[in-house]
Amino acid sequence: MRSGSAERGGYRDPVPAVPVRDDLRALEGYHSPQVEVRVRLNTNESPTAPPAAWRDALAAELSRVEWHRYPDRSATELRRSIADVHGVDPGQVFAANGSNEVLQTLLLTYAGPGRRVATFEPTYQLHGHIARLTGAAVVEGERHPDFTLDLTEVDRVLGEAAPSVTFLCSPNNPTGREEPRANVEAVLARAPGLVVVDEAYGQFASWSALELVDEDRPLVVTRTFSKTWSMAAARLGYLVGPSWLVAELDKVVLPYHLDAAKQIAGRLAVRYAGDMERRVRQIVDQRERISAGLAALDTEVFPSGANFVLFRPRHRRGREVWQGLLDRSILVRDCSGWPRLADCLRVTVGTPDENGEFLTAMQEILG
Ligand SMILES: *Cc1c(COP(=O)(O)O)cnc(C)c1O
């Protein structure tokens, strides 16, 4: 028998028969609206595919997988490949299904009920969201109006909340700001618990907190194959941190969470690091083109160390400009309604042609 349906605008919304956890009732899901468009510049993916040679090598190895067997539970070869890229010990690498699962495992291990997690807003929404899912309380610190970190506020938040986990994101999403090394060191000096630096866009930036990772320091740096490696479909991310911390994460994560195909995909990808670096250089060039183009258009442009640019039209509503772009079948991320980001839009760097179309459309809309 079908029952418990409520009519809402022609959409039948089932009334849940079993209540969710009390602390999850007010929570909203993570949304990234998708619309069919010609030019898609809204999710910070790479505009180009990985090399054909990688695709061929992957297909060849996939044909030899023993599908009736569980995969290598500790992903030994994948970890070794990633460790070699960074010149660290494989025991200092933890890989998972996207860096989001890395973050989830970190938070399951070090956050949870009765603990606090600090973020400095605006920043990547999933840091706070996943922390809440584990039952932790999230303490949101503010930034300066130009989105740089306010060390007085850092002092206050870390002093008052004594968080078990403190998040930084460099370059920060959605602002594009790189965190200077001095800021990361200042946070490390003050944080009573673990410091996580999310470097999903690390290869686009001028420095990396990886150089600060040390066995004696409660610091981890997370990375992903989704952006610079052009492998968002593979769902693979990792962290580099002290080996004692990695050992704790290995106890918490589900057994066999990394399937055989993903382990191969990641292990093969690092052979094409040269291609990745070439793509990164082109995107950085194009990012500077977009930033300069927008700055010439009566628009406030925030400095970016990533593969996207946050901007705010000075004399038009952000939402109107977003709609004007959509009318031309160009989709960017509308941040204009988000807290602290009034009228801001975020454009992902695309191919040179796509960026040209975007800038031309912006000229038409603002001109
Ligand atoms: C895109 C992004 C991620 C992505 O993670 P995956 O799960 O690896 O795709 C993580 N952190 C930030 C800040 C991001 O922008």
What would CATH call the class of the largest domain? Alpha Beta
Low-confidence stretches: 1-7
- The CATH architecture term of the largest domain is 3-Layer(aba) Sandwich
Report the average pLDDT across residues.
95
CATH superfamily of the largest domain: Type I PLP-dependent aspartate aminotransferase-like (Major domain)
Give me the strand/helix succession.
EEEHHEHEHEHEHEEEHHHEEHEEH
Helix content: 25-40%
Query: C-alpha Rg, in Å?
Result: 21 Å
> Which hetero ligands occur in this complex?
pyridoxal-5'-phosphate
Strands ordered across the widest β-sheet: 4-10-9-8-7-5-6
Approximate strand percentage: 15-25%
What does this 3D model show about the protein?
By secondary structure, this protein is α/β, with parallel strands linked by helices. The protein folds into two domains: 30-50 and 275-366, Alpha-Beta Complex (Aspartate Aminotransferase, domain 1); 52-272, Aspartate Aminotransferase, domain 2, CATH 3.40.640.10. 36% of the residues lie in helices and 18% in strands. It is built from eleven helices and 14 strands. The protein has a seven-stranded mixed β-sheet with strand order 4-10-9-8-7-5-6, with helices on both faces. A five-stranded mixed β-sheet has the order 3-13-14-12-11. The protein has a two-stranded antiparallel ribbon with strand order 1-2. Helix 4 links the parallel strand 5 (116-121) and strand 6. The protein is globular and about 60 Å long. 41% of the residues are buried. Residues 1-7 have low confidence and may be disordered. Pyridoxal-5'-phosphate is lined by residues 44, 98-100, 124, 169, 173, 198, 200, 224, 226-227, 237. Residues 44, 98-100, 124, 169, 173, 198, 200, 224, 226-227, 237 line the site of pyridoxal-5'-phosphate.
